[in-house]
Amino acid sequence: MTERREQTAPLYENLDTAYVRLAALVRYLEGRSFTGVVRVELEEYGGEIVLRAGEQTTAREVNHLTGATTEGEAALQRLFVRAGEPGGLISVYEGEAEASATASAARRADRAMGEDETDADLTPEELERRELLRLSGELIECVERAVLVAGGDFAAALHAARLSLTEDFPFLDPLTRRFEYEEGVVRLDARPSARLYVSGINEALRRVVERVAGVEQKIGVRKDVVRELSSLLRRRQSALARFKFTPQQLERIAGMKLL
Fold this sequence. Notes:
globular, six-stranded antiparallel beta sheet, single chain, 259 residues
């Protein structure tokens, strides 16, 4: 478990964009032959910069409102400019595993978006639904990271939580495969109300943390969940509020007060 924490622990976390120049930070890391990921989060916008010693730095930006993603040098330069805005957060994660995982997640997200309709084809209601699924994927991924850092079995805990909730939230029934989650991406082949969906996700994640902390006896998992959810709340406060993912509900998931 100690090794896992060392691999995933941030080198720098939640640096304020009002005081840190992203371009200067990236150049500094390149000069150190750094391998890892720099993550940038602003309101409704974010991105990731992947650095590998001896290789060209790559970047990917994401518009959280539309889901549109862009990669390449232009994305890197826009990240540098946008990160000059106050109110954003910059975190740095060291390690080849972190860089590889980020690159793989970017490819999966691009494939997932490519399989769906373009935003121009969607009604306002469908755009809202897409954003809800995207936001819930981010929330689930936060808990997943915390559980994995603590050495817990996230997949087993989520499966057990979903099985226990099928009567109240039928869309979560693993046997129907109407709800699928993989590394930050949610697919939903059902039409529950937004309120029912949010309630189901919140309760499932609460039971995941409860199982890992209790049955698996990973005592530190709650603090890791608090750290992840507090960071998500700072980055995505308006979107969370819009879909009624309240701070109180996030604290209920963690079983502790947020930071």
